[in-house]
Amino acid sequence: MATSDSTKRTLVELEANSPEKVTALFDGIRGIFDFDIAGRQQTDWQAIRDAWLSRKTGLLTLIGDNWLKPAPKELKPVVGQEFQKLKSHVEATLESKRKEMEAAAENAAAARDQIDLSLPGVERAIGTRHLIRQTYEELERIFLSIGFTVVEGPEIETPYYNFEALNIPEHHPARDNMDTFYIEGSRAGHLLRTHTSPMQIRTMEKEKPPVRIIVPGKVYRRDNPDATHGYMFHQIEGLAVDTDITFCEFKGTVEYFVREFLGPKARTRLRPSYFPFTEPSAEVDASCHVCGGSGCRVCKFSGWIELFGSGMVNPAVYGFVGGDYDPAKLSGFAFGMGVDRLAMMKYGISELPVLTQNDVRFLRQFP
Ligand code: DAH
Prior knowledge:
Bound molecules: 3,4-dihydroxyphenylalanine
Radius of gyration: 48 Å
Number of strands: 9
Low-confidence stretches: none
Structural class: alpha+beta
């Protein structure tokens, strides 16, 4: 620092022998201080304070020691005055610098902490239940409300449970439209179940009557994929067996289901059909949910939509189960619904593949 030379010497050595020269000396020092502080970063104010005000080595202490104390008597008042002026100037300037710096630091912290509420937040996409899952839950809600319980079973089945025990013998034509995938290797002789009906048998083998169950699950068929067929789809099976179940209970249950699923105005129609494991068998139709039965493109102008297959349990099936299932004492009904089909119908979806393509543009329509 350019001041160090002069502040180490006395006024006599500096030849400051008049009040003017003393004032000029102090003016010079003040200029140096002003220059020094103007050129510094705000955060350096402490370094400058040390350089100027430090009790042992600060420049003001040097000036006091070298200029003020040994000053000749006649100059002492001027030197004292100038010294006080310089000291107050240095102190005041440093103090205002300190305040400035603290305020700036506070402002910076406040700016950092400020939350900009106008900024859009980080949106985290949370998943939703798939439409098939939602439909299952709806179906389960309806049947749980009338005393059914949910059971699940294996997707890899034996031909016995998938066919024979359901009264579908080896060369029965009913097997034709249920061609499936046969397992090779260690589980050879097994197949991928073509329907959830095997769980009728498995449940009755395990549990004494009465039973009231629904069976949600995946089933497989060797279908050629198109708009309404795939190699896998979803079913929900139903079975109710007790000592006093009549066709009336069957019909009442089915009608209750249709109204719950499609709305109170929906009407039900039973159409004769054939399944080896039910006798009699029926297709359940509902009045078209789009036109209400007057006829439209969706119901192909018939007013009716086919919902699912059903019937009274064929006594031959109890024969396969044996045990407590005495065909002379028991009766019951069963049904098997295609869940994909029901969902597509209810929500107006025309293509089966969109259900498994995982396109979020489709999935988001069913939050
Ligand atoms: N298992 C049949 C199928 O997949 C559907 C079915 C029809 C199930 C009538 C039943 C029933 O329980 O009674 O085509």
